[in-house]
Structures are given as structure tokens and as C-alpha cells.
């Protein structure tokens, strides 16, 4: 994940001064980590890309309202996590039949990570592939079932490697609260995985 607040600050200031190229630089730097986060949250590459695009639209629309000392990483992930949450709530109220259960981003802008299939260094057996796919699907499903506050805390910490301070801004809680949410997220994730891999229902 990009980690240069000074460069973000300079580009945000340039954007506020009317330099359109500054937005392009911010997009180039942040599109990939934002797309990764959005995909892990909504688990659909097309939706993830749309939500990231909407995040950058919001950034441009609100550019003049932002303080010059705004921590852009926290602002972007806050805006995107809210969009993802609203999107998922809308999807649950308007369910559709999925055309594919293996949708995932195919380009570098939303690469898959340890919880999603990676490129194997050695040729695995078909049984090993199937078992790995089943385990990864169980992890994705379990993460998807976490409450919003626990989900974003887990994703931002484990996959985007944000600091507790940055996560606290996005999650709207104290740094101690981030630690508590991470503990609860891991606990619930472990319980969900036990039930999913065992094929038994989990009481929510």
C-alpha cells in the first residue's frame, strides 16, 4: 500500500489549486490498494472497480472541503468503506442470481492475496487444488459474514497494513477500540470457519 503522506499532501494541495493532473497521480497511486480492499469487501470485481471510481469522484467533489493536513489514506478508505457498506446493504435488499461463483479481478489493480488463490510455485494435484479452493471460499464467506465494523478493521489491518491510528479514523473508534475489534473479528472468524468447514450452521 502507498505510504507517503507528504506526497499525498502535495498532490491534494495541487488538486485544490486546480491542477487536474494531481488527481491522475492520486488515482495511479491509490487505485490498486483501494480496489484490493473493495474486492475483499464486496467480492465482485466489477462492483469493486465501480466503488473505487465513485470514491475518486467523491474526492474530487469534496477536494476544497478537505483540510490541508488531511491524512488521505484514512479519508479514502473511510469513503470507500462507507460505499462498500451501503452497496452490500442494497445488494441484500435486492438479491440477484449470480452468474458465476468464481468472480475475481483479473488485472493487477485488484490482485488476489493469501485468502484468495495465488500462483502456485509447484504444480498441485487436482485434489489439493479442490481442497485449497474450498478453504479459500470458506474464508471469503466467513469474512463476508462479519459485521461491518469488524470486517473493515480486519481487512485494513491484515491486508492493507494500516496503522491502528489510521484504522481508528476509518472505523470511528479509539486505537484501543481497534485492538478490541480485531480480537472480536478473529474470534468470530474462527468460529464461523469451524462451522463452515464442518458443514454445520452457526448461530449469529
SSE blueprint:
Blueprint (H helix, E strand, L loop, with lengths): L4 H12 L3 H23 L2 H17 L10 H22 L32 H20 L2 H11 L5 H8 L3 H24 L6
Helix pairs in contact: 1-2, 2-3, 2-4, 3-4, 4-7, 5-8, 6-7, 6-8, 7-8
What can you tell me about this protein's structure?
Helix content is about 65%, strand content about 0%. By secondary structure, the protein is mostly helical. The chain folds into two domains: about 1-110, Rna Polymerase Sigma Factor, Chain: A; about 120-204, Orthogonal Bundle (Arc Repressor Mutant, subunit A). α5 (about 125-145) packs across α8. The longest helix is centred in the C-terminal third of the chain and has 24 residues, at about 175-200. The chain starts with a helix and ends in a 6-residue tail after the last helix.
Amino acid at each position: 500500500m502507498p505510504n507517503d503522506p507528504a506526497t499525498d499532501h502535495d498532490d491534494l494541495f495541487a488538486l485544490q489549486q486546480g491542477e487536474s493532473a494531481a488527481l491522475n497521480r492520486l488515482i495511479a497511486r491509490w487505485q490498486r490498494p483501494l480496489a484490493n480492499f473493495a474486492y475483499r469487501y464486496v467480492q465482485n470485481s466489477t462492483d469493486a472497480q465501480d466503488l473505487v471510481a465513485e470514491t475518486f469522484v467523491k474526492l474530487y467533489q469534496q477536494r476544497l472541503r478537505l483540510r490541508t493536513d488531511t491524512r488521505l489514506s484514512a479519508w479514502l478508505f473511510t469513503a470507500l468503506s462507507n460505499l462498500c457498506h451501503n452497496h452490500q446493504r442494497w445488494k441484500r435488499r435486492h438479491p440477484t442470481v449470480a452468474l458465476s461463483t468464481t468472480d475475481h479481478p483479473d488485472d493487477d489493480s485488484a490482485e488476489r492475496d493469501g485468502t484468495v488463490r495465488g500462483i502456485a510455485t509447484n504444480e498441485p494435484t487436482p485434489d489439493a487444488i479442490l481442497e485449497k479452493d474450498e478453504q479459500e471460499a470458506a474464508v471469503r464467506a466467513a469474512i463476508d459474514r462479519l459485521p461491518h465494523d469488524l470486517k473493515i478493521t480486519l481487512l485494513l489491518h491484515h491486508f492493507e497494513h494500516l496503522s491502528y491510528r489510521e484504522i481508528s479514523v476509518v472505523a470511528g473508534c479509539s486505537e484501543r477500540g481497534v485492538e478490541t475489534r480485531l480480537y472480536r473479528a478473529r474470534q468470530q472468524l474462527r468460529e464461523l470457519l469451524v462451522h463452515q468447514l464442518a458443514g454445520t450452521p452457526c448461530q449469529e
